[in-house]
Amino acid sequence: MNQDFMDLAFQCAETAFNMNEVPIGAVIVKEGKVISSAFNTKESDCSVLSHAELLAIHKAEKVLNNWRLDGCELYVTLDPCPMCASAIKQSRISKVFSALNNSDDENINIIQDIFKSDSTNPGVDFSSNLAVDKSKKLLNLFFKKQRNK
Questions:
Q1: What is the mean pLDDT of the chain?
Q2: Out of 9, 111, 113, 119, which could bridge 75 as a Cys pair, Cβ 3.0 to 4.6 Å?
Q3: Catalytic residue list
């Protein structure tokens, strides 16, 4: 894992925080170069599809002019949900580095199943809990702020 890329994902998450969005950021890297970054915009977009990972994938596809993101790595501040995990696998991102696992054990099991290699797509190398304290602090601060509104 490259700490600079994870730090950039956290900068994206902080932007989301400042916009009253759930603070999740994502960065996609290819050959050591950032090709896209994004943060959650579900509330401002009024779209269930505006997850940080999906937005970063869409941007990376445009940069590479290809939906196949072979050899790309994703840095994200919270484990992806099953929808995002499926898109990550379909896009052929090879590695995911996550700051914090989702507290829902079932989510972790589903993601691990999705990321397994199958007859259509290669597997995704997945590492989680790489910046637990930083991610928990940001998420807890966000939800505390939301409760105090």
A1: 94
A2: 9
A3: 53
